[in-house]
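Suppose a colleague, Dr. K., hands you the sequence of a protein chain of 163 amino acids and asks what its three-dimensional shape might be. Before reaching for any lab equipment, you can write down a predicted structure in token form. Begin with the sequence itself:
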Amino acid sequence: MPKNLFQNVIFTLMMSFLMVYVMICYNISLNIGGMSNEVFLMAFGEMKIMWPVAFLLEFFIVDKLAHALAFRIVTPNDRPIVITLAISAMIICIMCPVMSLIATVLFKNAGSNIIFTWFETTFFNFPVAFFWQMFYCGPCIRFIFGKMFPEKENAVEKNTVTE
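The predicted structure, expressed as tokens, is then:
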């Protein structure tokens, strides 16, 4: 969807913010034994670290790798939604274990059980990250981004319809 570097930065900032915030809320809820109003505020403490990390990882490493992996499954001639879903799935497959490792090291106090705690964290996070990205976060951010940066073809069509 982004057409230039500026748009790519904005899109990645938006997507990484919403994904990281929800995943932090989910993990805090798991740690304290349930969801409460305080979780939404507590999440901002971890956001200071995890959002920049997620943005940098996604922007500089994961996006290119995810595209390369996705285009081993789909072709540029496939329907745009199929391409979008394939890229999103690859991003989740890369980001979830990496971000789970970072969260394990920084917040879990795993000690000598770091590998097992990382596996457990990834195991719990992956389904939530997948469904949240595919069905809520991804469509929501793409919708908002599309309103912020309408494509020229759509803008031309809207102008000719309204005139």
